Amino acid sequence: MWGAAPVFAVWRLKRALNVGLEKELKEAVKLVCGSVNEMIWSKEESMDSDSGNDLLSKFLKAGLDVELVRNMVISFLMAGTDSTSAAVTWLLWLLTGHRKIEKQVVDEVTSIKNSEQLGFDDLKGMNFMKACLCESMRLYPPLVLLPVVLSPMKHICY
Ligand code: HEM
Prior knowledge:
Bound molecules: protoporphyrin IX containing FE
Oligomer: single chain
Strand content: under 5%
Structural class: mainly alpha
Helix content: 55-70%
Radius of gyration: 22 Å
């Protein structure tokens, strides 16, 4: 822990002076927050006209604070993007090395009625695909390292 102490000092100083990576981080956070705010505002405007069945509409209709909704959207974006792309990348890579299995996956997908226009419900019928995805995630977990730091708290629920 002592070895890391000077590093903390460096980024704290950079943050205080608003230079280097800390400056870039601040700008990036501003950009992400701005984009998500626009997404929320445009959803609020269109909520009366569309069916409002999506998660964002549900959060807004529940009357949640806009800042809370914005933070939830950001955490969904962050948590969902790399994890899903890594999982799909490993699956596709494994399938390219196992042509027989790849054919079985393709057969399963094309055997579904209206396979040109697949929907969420069609996933329920893709048992072979699910097995491949599970095996691929077993072999190559998308989130290998998940560091969790517990901040000092007086009470942890018990
Ligand atoms: C293959 C894809 C995914 C994998 C492997 C994955 C894996 C994980 C793991 C291991 C955690 C930590 C659980 C814990 O120990 O607390 C987690 C948390 C989380 N994931 Fe995913 N995830 C995936 C996709 C997604 C997607 C698509 C979303 C959102 C659209 C999402 C949203 C979240 C959120 C919000 C948390 C935090 C939950 C909490 O704070 O309790 N994840 N995920």
